[in-house]
Amino acid sequence: MPAPADLPDLPATFRPRRTRVVLLSTGAALLAVFTVIAVALPHDGPTAWGTGDRATFVGTGLVIFAVLAVLSRPKIVADRDGVTVVNLTVKRRLEWAELVRVNLRPGDPWVYLDLADGTTMAAMGIQPGAGRDRAVRAAGRLRALAEAYGTGRAPGGPGTPGAPGGDGGAGTD
Question: Looking at the record's lineage, which domain of life comes first (predicted)?
Fold first, then answer.
């Protein structure tokens, strides 16, 4: 187990910052471009554009911005009580006891969390596509927190009552 001095300060937030900046900047720029186009369209003449046409341009810019904002949403927030995982449309709170393992294998698009109920959950807040070294360091920090604060056990694994070699965590042999 890592020494407490090696652990990140809590609360710790993990998110793909570069991806978030690019997505939100692109969304804002596109919204501005669509708005300028809506204002610049001719008011009269053979190709006059009405208020509805202009509103459609601005509305399209808003929809694009909203989609990019949702794509920039993923993050993981760790505190003393557990982890909050925010993915594209789902937010889930996990107690440390529910978290068994933090995985980031070569080729994975993001971190996967193995949970005590035997399921696996994607945690999109750490993505190697935006910087492999940074993602590996972040996954290591989250793993260190899980090992320091977590008590989760894989179903049927060591430390689970009734498991071969398991004692329920009592520590007696």
Answer: Bacteria
